[in-house]
Sequence to fold (345 residues):
Amino acid sequence: MILVTGGAGFIGSHVVDALLEQGHDVRILDLLLEAAHRERPDYLDARAALAEGDVRDPDALDRALQGVTAISHQAAMVGLGVDLGDIADYVSHNDLGTAQLLKALAARRFTGTLVLASSMVVYGEGRYRCAEHGLVRPGPRAPEDLDAGRFEPPCPHCGRDLQPEVVPEDAPLDPRNVYAATKLAQEHLCNAFARETGATVAALRYHNVYGPRMPRDTPYAGVASIFRSSLAAGRSPRVFEDGAQRRDFVHVRDVAAANLRALEADTPGAFNVASGTPRSVGEMAAALSRAVDPSLLPLLTGEWRAGDVRHVFASPERAASSLGFRASEDFEAGMREFAEAKLRA
Fold:
């Protein structure tokens, strides 16, 4: 039996589907948090037993963990949130929830595989190279630079332009918002658990995930969902900064496949889960506009959000060599599918 916490959510439900397709017995533990679910999802596969409960609740965990041999831990509050008023909720759902899960597993002397849904946000800014100083770590971008439209982080030593590069898993970790800090704390907690128990922990650092079942009309949704909601309402997607910030957009079915590989491989470590092909946010918005309504061209606003980073895109090589995972979904086809897919209320 494999337990998927948060298995009723966007990514978790696709993980459940992938596991069922491979013949696994699956149980879901999900709080059906109102901020993420306004109603019970209609896409849940009846073959997976749904235990409605909170991962922070020892009694709910005790029931959900009966007979479980592996866990895909997807339960979390996601996104950058709204403001610091969210901080306690993020820490509670993400870090306390993970701690309670690990406590329950330790009490059961669990030594199987735990796959943790982590995120590329643990890196902060991506990897940059200066022509004079080599690899450098730029600090947070200054508000006065962002207000003036200077979005590229300069070399911290000489102020020159930098060349962004792919981020490997051994890059320095530098979380720059509350959500990022909680994801890194989850990794540290799980690694401590693995050292103490001998269990296998694989932390999957998801990059920008998109696809069917994303939540709509919420500040906690990903940028692809926000753009999709705008287009569905007949409005052009509003792209912050100049739209040139680069990310790696990876389809949710690829993310589910990575979870399946990690559960089967029994290989510990941190792994980027990414397409391997970086694209700008502006390019993504344009692809989605083409698929929905080509007349609704993306609008570059010049606005910025505190805590956002400029470029972060991944090297997929460790996941390929250690887990046998490579993303396979086509970006343009994925955007066309996403343009028509039902989003979650």
Remarks:
- Residues 87-107 form the longest helix (21 residues).
- DSSP finds ten helices and 16 strands in the chain.
